[in-house]
Inverse folding.
């Protein structure tokens, strides 16, 4: 046992605070996505529903992590009641299953979003092939984790036969990082082929590249994947980074869908600063825009974003008239 200053210290408050914060942040962004899609665009696609499923799975995983502080997580194992250890391990097992299942759902959210927003026939074939590989990998890891021990209860009761944890954790982390990178790189060549000016391409690529932040968290998390004697204490960092990884993943999947909401806020601010006349003009412009959206219920906001970028040159030509009658996205 390494020298410990206080055997009775606890980091449970840290676990609960971190979990609550990242879950609240992720839920806010997913909520903004649902509002944008359901009430502004007025159409919900498979990717939007998968984002909701992913968020529910993240909440379940986060709940398991926070609840496990009742069974010793964030405390030193040397002072725990031995009867708590099986309860800790069982909750830990459930959280790992949820973690892997949630990663699979988040990856599906990205892929379904690509399929709908960037889907020419040729592009959809590529997305489908990549999706089949990523989905197979992701759900194979869920299967492996569920049956990592035979019988399953051996994970928390002992006995039986189990796959060694450390090799499995590293294989799992490495494969997830590889598939994450594959998903993030997949749309970039497609976007670069769009008939946009270079600056617009860079902006659009930058939006899709936000997901590399999640990759960075996944890579950083690897350093905390270890088995130690005081595992109830030492697992705190891995648990917190795992929830952070899931939350950042769904946030990055949702951010590109929020442009209509952000545009609505920007133009509302602009209209109030210009006074009554500008407000009337904006209302008329927004109404026309809204009417067009209602007649195209199957358009995704990503498609409209790309369309608006394609028409950027025409918008620039009409700058003078736009100053009198703004025609931005709602």
């Amino acid at each position: 046992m390494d020298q410990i200053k206080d055997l009775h210290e606890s980091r449970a408050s840290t676990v609960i605070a971190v979990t609550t914060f990242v879950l609240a942040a992720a839920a806010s962004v997913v909520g903004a996505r649902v509002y944008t899609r359901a009430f502004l665009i007025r159409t919900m696609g498979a990717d939007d529903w998968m984002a909701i499923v992913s968020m529910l799975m993240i909440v379940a995983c986060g709940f398991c992590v926070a609840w496990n502080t009742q069974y010793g997580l964030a405390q030193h194992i040397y002072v725990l009641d031995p009867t708590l250890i099986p309860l800790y391990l069982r909750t830990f097992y459930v959280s790992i299953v949820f973690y892997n299942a949630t990663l699979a759902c988040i990856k599906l959210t990205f892929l379904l979003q690509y399929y709908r927003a960037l889907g020419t026939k040729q592009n959809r074939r590529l997305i489908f092939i990549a999706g089949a590989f990523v989905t197979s990998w992701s759900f194979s890891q869920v299967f492996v984790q569920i049956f990592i021990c035979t019988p399953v209860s051996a994970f928390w009761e002992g006995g039986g036969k189990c796959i060694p944890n450390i090799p499995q954790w590293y294989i799992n982390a490495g494969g997830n990082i590889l598939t994450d990178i594959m998903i993030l790189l997949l749309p970039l060549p497609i976007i670069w082929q769009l008939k946009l000016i270079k600056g617009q391409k860079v902006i659009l690529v930058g939006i899709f590249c936000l997901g590399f932040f999640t990759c960075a968290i996944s890579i950083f998390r690897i350093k905390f994947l270890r088995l130690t004697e005081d595992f109830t204490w030492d697992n705190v960092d891995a648990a917190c980074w795992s929830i952070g990884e899931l939350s950042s993943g769904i946030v990055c999947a949702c951010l590109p869908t929020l442009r209509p909401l952000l545009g609505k806020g920007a133009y509302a601010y602009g209209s109030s600063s210009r006074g009554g006349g500008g407000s009337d003009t904006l209302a008329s412009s927004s109404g026309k825009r809204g009417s067009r959206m209602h007649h195209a219920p199957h358009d995704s906001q990503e498609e409209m974003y790309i369309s608006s970028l394609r028409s950027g040159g025409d918008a620039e030509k009409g700058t003078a008239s736009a100053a009198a009658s703004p025609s931005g996205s709602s």
